[in-house]
Write a structure and sequence with these properties.
The structure holds two protein chains of two kinds.
Chain A (H helix, E strand, L loop, with lengths): L2 E4 L1 H4 L11 E5 L3 H8 L6 E2 L6 H11 L10 E3 L5 E8 L3 E9 L5 E12 L7 H5 L18 E3 L6 H18 L6
Antiparallel strand pairs in A: 2-7, 3-4, 4-5, 5-6, 6-7
Chain B lengths: L1 E6 L2 E7 L8 H22 L7 H6 L6 E3 L2 H16 L9 H6 L21 E5 L2 E4 L11 H15 L5 E5 L2 E5 L4 E6 L7 E8 L1 E7 L15 E7 L2 H14 L6 H4 L3 E6 L1
Antiparallel strand pairs in B: 1-2, 2-6, 3-5, 4-5, 6-7, 7-10, 8-9, 10-11, 11-12
Helix pairs in contact in B: 1-5, 3-6, 5-6
The chains are: A alpha+beta, B alpha+beta.
Chain lengths: 181, 267
Amino acid sequence: MMNWRPSLLGIAGLATIANPIVAQARIYVSIEQTQQLLFPNQRLIKFPIIVTQDLQEKMRVASSIRYPFVGERVWRGPDGSWLVIDEVVGKHEMITYAIGIAPNGSVKGIEILEYVESYGYEVADSQWRKQFIGKTAGDPVKLNQDIQNISGATLSSKHLTDGVKRVLVLYELALKELPQK
Amino acid sequence: MMRCKPMLGTYVEIQINEAQMGLTSRQIHLAMNEAFASIALVQSLMGFHDPYSELSMMNQLEPNRSLEIHPWTEKVLKTAQLICQESHGLFDCGVGRQLVYQKLLPLHQINHAPSDQSSILSIQFLGNQVICLTQPVCLDLGGIAKGFAVDEAVRALKLCGIQNGIVNAGGDLRVFGKQSHTVLLRSPRRANELIQVGSLKEGAMATSSNHTIFHPQKGITPVQGSYSVIAKECIYADALTKVLALSQDTRHPIFQNYEAESIWLPA
């Protein structure tokens, strides 16, 4: 049986319960869990890559993402599959996501690792971002302690689509041709 | 545990409490995979952006030709048609062309449906998931398919033995299980404010803002604000937000048909 108990004060717009979001962070899965989810039973080996200026520029043109791609979080599977972790930054949000790429170059799957939302700060500000980088679900920061169920006008995933574009350019121009060990 | 994937043009989040009777965490993850797969199927059947979706095939279909569709597409179309009739045309998925004109949807489909004639009511169901059209259509199922996808994800989770959880597709959410969940609404005035609007058990809530809604006949957008509907299933909550936004009537008789509640927060 559905049971809906409205909070009249909230609905009346007497938003005394209003809860300003300064920074809301949701942590979904860790890097290890992501590897298991996208490539179960495969042993991935970390494969950091150096992104040349030329490649960086090509990725920028393809995706219109201006901040540089960091090539540290890249893994390779024994069969030529890849796992790449990247971040996209919007006006109010920063999203860490993983793309699994199959040996034939198709996207095997995408998982969101973290979603950080902020108002009152520019997310793109590097100082602001730094406080979240490297955080994992095991950290004693008070993240995820009170998971909120938010309804509201749909958030667009356009930034993430741009992120996927640049990782696929990375694959085409750099990862694909790397010799198998 | 919580997982999130970019789907349906937004972020789909699934939350499952780790204590599910008789299930290992691996089984819970597999159940979540099934739920995400259901959503992916809805997207591939009913996505406007995909030129090979069943929706795109319908939008290119000439009148009096028949087309076989997936049972899920049929269910969404039938529900959309019913709500169109019950709302006297306020909810009509025939607004695809207007959304293309407003650059909210891509122009990739060749068809000859003028925007003022395209209507979900032009679909005839011939049985066995076969349809035909009385007039060309330019449909966009964006106002209902997301809710349906949430319902199918919940169904998949339950089939895998999950007893309670939450599926939230960018604001269209459904909760199931014995627990009640507090629901917050993003303020239409200030995006950094969350308003606690109530608590929900075994039900769905969907919210629409004005700028992606068009009046099927007048082509206008509703007054700015946040329009939410609570119903048993997310497909109804999702579709009825458009009726609320366009009628500006929180007591529109259609809500009774679905035992739905509505919330309108003006901007």
